[in-house]
Design goal:
By secondary structure, this protein is of the alpha+beta class. It is built from eleven helices and nine strands. A hairpin with a 4-residue loop joins β6 and β7. The chain binds adenosine-5'-[phenylalaninyl-phosphate]. Adenosine-5'-[phenylalaninyl-phosphate] binds next to β5, β8, β9 and α10.
Length: 344
């Protein structure tokens, strides 16, 4: 609006010029204060107006009011403009995702060493003609003990400290030999079966013993199966696991109620020829038990021991993993420690 009063005209011109040149919300506020604020140019002019003539008051009064109204509206419009621009900037910032700004290091996942060995062993056992079986980890007392020729009250039950379940007559299986029973009962004779799985024993833990560990078991039932078959099979399995043809085994008499004769099997140390820390300078490493299946077990699985014989072997898989990967403490295997797992 054109104002008739030259000073008001100059103030108005100056105000709109400054307002349009304002850079931010603060500038706008300062301009408002200096023009239409309490001590601003317009109020100063109003004070002076008191001394003006009646004629002057009549024209300038409405013009001043009009300017104040227009100036306030222009101020608010400018503030809204800045606020909208700021909001748009913020929204744009939050929508924007700079894919180049942060590049986390890439850590590839890898198979757990036990899984790797398990897969290798599965291939070895199946390529030798064994059929792989699974069995429940919460096993019946009958299968884990009685059918394996370990009757109630027999002191052999104390050879393996057992986790007894509150379920009737159920235990956490103490060895994969339990799968032997299930396998022989379901397949009959002849059969060549193997099983890999977790076992549980209520034992104090140390670097080579845990309360959860894995074993693998293999058995063959046929006519005229002998100790020679057993020993040759064990040697072939271990040679394939460690990929060493000159690996040898030795057997010592031992007692397991489900085999007769029972053997303790040692493997020549795959890491040395003259004794090292792994074999504790003995050049032999204990692997597990084996033997010819006891006639009572065959009978408990409905097989006539006069017609068939068989061998069984049961080794610590966890022990093989430790040896294969140079793991010094069994408890690391399911510690879940990322620093440990990242090594494989
Ligand atoms: C048995 O469990 C027999 N069932 C093996 C067997 C099968 C004998 C078939 C005859 C015929 P033993 O309790 O010794 O046997 O266990 C075999 C292997 O499992 C041991 O040599 C060891 O390598 C592993 N093992 C046993 N207890 C633990 C444990 N607490 N922690 C880690 N490994 C274990």
């Amino acid at each position: 609006m054109e104002y008739t009063h030259p000073r008001l005209q100059a103030i108005a011109q100056d105000y709109y010029q400054q307002l349009s040149a304002a850079q931010n919300r603060n500038d706008v506020e300062n301009i408002r204060i200096s023009f239409i604020g309490r001590n601003g140019a317009i109020n100063t002019l109003m004070v002076e107006l008191k001394k003006a003539s009646l004629e002057e008051k009549r024209t300038l009064g409405p013009e001043l009011n009009d300017f104040k109204k227009q100036a306030q509206a222009a101020f608010e419009k400018k503030v809204t403009e800045f606020e909208t621009a700021e909001r748009t900037r913020q929204e744009a910032r939050s929508d924007f995702f700079d894919v180049t700004a942060y590049r986390p290091g890439i850590h590839r996942g890898s198979l757990h060493p036990q899984t790797r060995l398990c897969e290798k062993l599965e291939n070895i056992l199946t390529s030798m003609g064994f059929e792989l079986l699974d069995g429940p980890e919460a096993e019946t007392e009958e299968i884990n003990f009685s059918a394996l020729n370990i009757p109630h009250d027999h002191p052999a039950r104390d050879m393996q400290d057992t986790f007894w379940l509150t379920l009737p007559e159920r235990v956490m299986r103490t060895h994969t030999s339990a799968v032997q029973v299930r396998g022989i009962r379901s397949h009959g004779a002849p059969c060549a079966l193997a099983s890999i799985g977790r076992c549980y024993r209520s034992e104090a833990t140390d670097a080579s013993h845990d309360f959860i560990f894995s074993q693998f078991e293999a058995l063959l039932i046929d006519k005229k199966v002998s100790l020679s078959h057993l020993i040759a099979t064990i040697r072939a399995i271990l040679q394939a696991v460690f990929e060493k043809e000159n690996l040898d085994i030795r057997v010592r008499p031992s007692y397991f109620p489900f085999v007769e004769p029972g053997l303790e099997v040692d493997m020549s140390c795959p890491f040395c020829t003259a004794g090292c820390s792994v074999c504790k300078k003995s050049r032999w490493i204990e692997m597990g038990g084996a033997g010819l299946i006891h006639p009572n077990v065959l009978r408990a699985c409905n097989i006539d021991p006069r017609e068939f014989s068989g061998f069984a072997l049961g080794f610590g898989l966890t022990r093989l993993v430790m040896l294969s990967y140079g793991i010094p403490d069994i408890r690391l295997l399911h510690s879940g420690k990322i620093e440990f797992l990242k090594q494989f």
